[in-house]
């Protein structure tokens, strides 16, 4: 299947119109079929090297739209840094403090025995596990 058609279908799964900016950013995120963990700033820098120029505000707004549409997840590693993950299944992450990289951790090795009950009127939407690493 043609790459642009795959991107249009990916956007349609989230109920999003295939605008020029969304297609350009989706191409960088999922165009090759690989999963990615990106920051908005990193995606903006990658987009700067393409013919489709987008503003940093557009990158932030588009990433938020992709998350709201269920096409990707936001992983917050601290109060000032968010990564956007194209892999949607439940899985833990390693955050490499020395380099600022976020990578997938082996889910099969993680055992969560029990979660606290959600407060009345709420339900658990997702559990994010971020394991912070530094050089020994």
UniProtKB/TrEMBL annotation:
Keywords recorded for this protein, A-Z: Cytoplasm, DNA-binding, Iron, Metal-binding, Repressor, Transcription, Transcription regulation, Zinc
GO molecular function, one term: zinc ion binding
Superkingdom of this protein's organism: Bacteria
Gene: fur
Similarity-based family: Belongs to the Fur family.
The name this protein goes by in its record: Ferric uptake regulation protein
Annotated localization: Cytoplasm
InterPro entries linked to this entry: FUR, WH-like_DNA-bd_sf, WH_DNA-bd_sf
Alphabetical GO biological process terms: negative regulation of DNA-templated transcription; regulation of secondary metabolite biosynthetic process
One Pfam family it belongs to: FUR
Record note on quaternary structure: Homodimer.
Keyword Cytoplasm belongs to the record: yes
A cellular-component GO term for this protein: cytoplasm
